[in-house]
Specification:
- The chain is an alpha/beta fold.
- The protein folds into two domains: 213 residues, UDP-n-acetylglucosamine1-carboxyvinyl-transferase, Chain, CATH 3.65.10.10; 190 residues, Alpha-beta prism (UDP-n-acetylglucosamine1-carboxyvinyl-transferase, Chain), CATH 3.65.10.
- 30% of the residues lie in helices and 25% in strands.
- It contains twelve helices and 22 strands.
- The strands form six sheets. A four-stranded mixed β-sheet has the order 20-21-1-22, covered by helices on one side. Strands 2-13-15-14 form a four-stranded mixed β-sheet.
- Strand 18 and strand 19 form a beta hairpin.
- Helix 1 crosses helix 6, helix 4 runs parallel beside helix 5 and helix 7 packs parallel to helix 9.
- The termini are close together.
- 50% of the residues are buried.
- The mean pLDDT is 97.
- The structure holds shikimate-3-phosphate and phosphoenolpyruvate.
- The site of shikimate-3-phosphate (S3P) has 11 residues, from helix 5.
- Phosphoenolpyruvate binds next to helix 3.
- Monomer.
- Catalyzes the transfer of the enolpyruvyl moiety of phosphoenolpyruvate (PEP) to the 5-hydroxyl of shikimate-3-phosphate (S3P) to produce enolpyruvyl shikimate-3-phosphate and inorganic phosphate.
- Pathway: Metabolic intermediate biosynthesis; chorismate biosynthesis; chorismate from D-erythrose 4-phosphate and phosphoenolpyruvate: step 6/7.
- It is found in: Cytoplasm.
Length: 411
């Protein structure tokens, strides 16, 4: 794929059925559980995301140095897996991955009896693993407001520890649905746990064989909601989604009701059609940080103002997402700013704003920047730089946009 693509302004009604890819979050958990359960789990509909392909490859690799590329879940889940293993191994990732913190997880694992050291800067990948010693404690205290991936990683290895594990979460719990997804999947494969208040306990147990069909990706679905909201008219069916989902990003259903999209579930499909919009929304993204970029862009173009909280974790993702979005939305005349500590406001494009076209958007090595900005083509000609970034979670994204009739050409 070339360094940039042009998406021509799309006027007609958007009417199609989208197959979507499946959830990389569910896939990557299911793969680790499968490995920890000695390959008894039968997994169906694994994601085509590069993060999932990477997880699968690394779990069966004998190489000493494992490269997760830019996959946060792979870095955090493989760290817990390798830390409790019996071999000397190393793990690394892209330059950005080596700037995403891992100290909380590495120290928690070392407290348990692992031997992890830093090969570069303290607190960040790359990491060196030496064989696990004996389990030193069965109780750990860990912050709940930095990354839930640390917590999910510890929980998945917990039943394999000789003494099990009790986690005390400190502070507010961010990305809680991802922790629940982990416990629900563990339960599906036979693991009992308790989550009361801020304490999660898992006794030593063996993962059982079972089959599991991965759900379509609600984070990927969010871009279709944005397209439905911004299109002149829309009737879009998204396949493979459950109304009662394990994925916190199914919160897009409620959020988009305020941005003019109605959802109707039918079996494993959801149909998106237009409904009335609101002029202002208050949204807390604590439980669904990956939806933030989608919603910023959609609201900015739709003329809806936003007041938001729960955006702290966006700074340590594939890029500093709030900073990157503030820069890109300014190209539309919209403003994203932190108005007081932890409170963000989005001022949408002024009505009738003149914009010189095509508008060129940068991707910041972040799949969600490219995917969230693309729906702007419902109103303007748009150039997306580094379009290949979408392979991280939704490799078919541009092909699916073409299926919707959007004209995309290489620049
Ligand atoms: O566990 C997971 O699958 C994920 C958890 C979230 O990360 P944080 O818990 O670091 O916010 C989310 O942003 C990420 O895309 C996937
Ligand atoms: C933050 C994300 O992924 P990860 O942390 O797994 O790299 C994401 O997919 O938006």
């Amino acid at each position: 794929m070339s360094d940039a693509i042009l998406l021509k302004k799309h006027d007609p009604k958007v009417e199609l059925t989208v197959p979507l890819t499946s959830s990389k979050s569910e896939s990557n958990r299911a793969l680790l559980i499968q490995k920890l359960g000695h390959d008894q789990a039968a997994l169906d509909n694994l994601s085509t995301a590069r993060d999932t392909v990477t997880m699968k490859r690394l779990l069966s690799s004998d190489e000493e140095m494992l490269d997760v590329l830019d996959a946060g879940t792979v870095m955090r889940f493989m760290t817990a897996y390798l830390a409790t293993g019996s071999q000397s191994r190393k793990i690394t990732g892209t330059p950005r991955m080596c700037k995403r913190p891992i100290k909380i997880l590495a120290e928690a694992l070392n407290d348990l009896g692992a031997n992890i050291s830093y090969l570069g800067e303290e607190g960040y990948p790359p990491l060196q693993f030496e064989p696990f010693g004996t389990q030193k404690t069965e109780e750990l205290t860990i912050p709940g407001n930095i990354s839930s991936q640390y917590i999910s990683a510890l929980l998945m290895i917990a039943p394999t520890l000789p003494k099990g594990l009790t986690l005390q979460l400190e502070g507010e719990i961010y990305s809680r649905p991802y922790i629940e997804m982990t416990l629900n999947l563990m339960k599906h494969f036979g693991i009992e746990s308790s989550f009361e208040g801020k304490t999660i306990s898992v006794k030593p147990q063996a993962y059982q064989g079972n089959s599991y069909t991965i759900e379509s990706d609600w984070s990927g679905a969010s871009y279709w909601y944005s397209i439905a909201a911004l299109a002149s008219d829309a009737d879009i069916t998204l396949k493979g989604l459950r109304e009662k989902s394990n994925q916190g990003d199914s919160a897009i259903v409620q959020i988009m009701e305020g941005l003019g999209v109605k959802s109707e579930f039918d079996g494993d499909s959801v149909r998106l059609t237009p409904c009335e919009i609101q002029s202002h929304l208050d949204i807390d993204f604590k439980s669904c940080p990956d939806l933030a970029q989608t919603v910023f862009v959609c609201a900015a173009v739709k003329g809806v103002s936003l007041k938001m909280t729960g955006l702290e974790s966006l700074r340590i993702k594939e890029t500093d997402r709030t900073a990157a979005m503030a820069t890109e939305l300014a190209k539309l005349g919209a403003k994203l700013e932190e108005t007081s500590a932890g409170v963000w406001e989005l001022t949408p494009m002024p009505a009738g704003q003149e914009v010189s076209q095509p508008i060129t958007f940068d991707s910041y090595d972040d799949h969600r920047m490219a995917m969230a900005l693309a729906p702007v083509c419902m109103h303007y000609d748009v150039i997306i730089n580094e379009p290949e970034v979408v392979v991280k979670s939704y490799p078919e994204y541009w092909d699916h946009l073409k299926m919707a009739g959007i004209q995309i050409s290489e620049k």
